[in-house]
Amino acid sequence: MSEYEECTDALVDPTVLTELQAELGGDQAIISTFIRNYAELLPWRVERLHHALEKLDIEDAMDAVLSLKTSSHMVGAICMSRLATELEISIRLLPGPAHLDELRALLNEIEHFVPATIRELGTPLS
Burial code of 54-89, b = ≥16 C-beta within 10 A, e = fewer? Predict the structure, then answer.
């Protein structure tokens, strides 16, 4: 099964946020703010990756993909985290920055899941 096929199921693992909420003493306001901040920054993070690929800036691309991967993991956005991990590995395996444009298809795949990830995160925790 490819990374893309794994993203056809749930895009978000709600247990990640439930566990984080428990660790924070059950404070729903903190979790809600955390989710809102992630959702607001997600399109920007993906746009930052597009910009880095266009500039052939491998350092900025790596910084941007690590930001996307880490923040996605923390909020339980499992599909976004998996795809960001795949992109990170692909960047590391490139022979040089001139080849960053070869990763555009994977970045477009990541972008494809942005709206649905944000929608799924909008579902309140039980």
Answer: eeeebebbeebbebbbebbbebbbbbbbbbbbbbbe
**What is the rounded CA–CA span in Å between residue 5 and residue 76?**
18
Percent of all residues in the chain with a pLDDT value above 70, rounded to a whole number: 90
Provide the whole-model pTM: 0.88
Structural domain count of the chain: 1
- Rounded CA gap, 41 and 10, in Å? 21
CATH number at 74 reads: 1.20.120.160
- For residue 59, the Cα-to-chain-centroid distance in whole angstroms is 18
Does pLDDT of 5 surpass 70? no
